[in-house]
Amino acid sequence: MRELSGPLKALIAEDEAIVALELEDRFLSMGWEVAGITARGEEAINLAGTKRPDLVVMDINLKGEVDGIKAAEKIYRLYSIPSIYVTACPFPEIRKRMSSPYYFPVIIKPFDDEVFHQAVKQALNFSPGSSLSSSPARGDD
Questions:
Q1: Taking the domains of the chain in order of start, what are their residue ranges?
Q2: Each residue's pLDDT tens digit, 83-135
Q3: What is the assigned CATH class of domain 9-138?
């Protein structure tokens, strides 16, 4: 568990630059630091190992060989860092691709601040195998 000696840190793995900047603004407005931004799953795994963020916001569809689901699962296995999945895909399709016990919170684009804050809180309290963490959140339904 991270020692609470400063602001929380987030890593953003998102291949749409405008969405990545929006996520960065949300974290900064919450008093967090942004440990890095990447559009590739492989780089997200490497950055998680070197920067040790408290949370990763992971787009499902990233550039490169490793998609967001595989990257998030590997980051948790290696470093115990939880993720939030961000996607525009339908939830049932994403749920089929998720592997037990890594049912991280899922937020469906577009989403509002309340949905985002709820997902952050869920992810920070993530426990492998928790079915509560796998429910989708939507911003504009």
A1: 9-138
A2: 999 988 776 777 777 766 778 888 988 899 999 999 999 999 987 765 444 44
A3: alpha beta
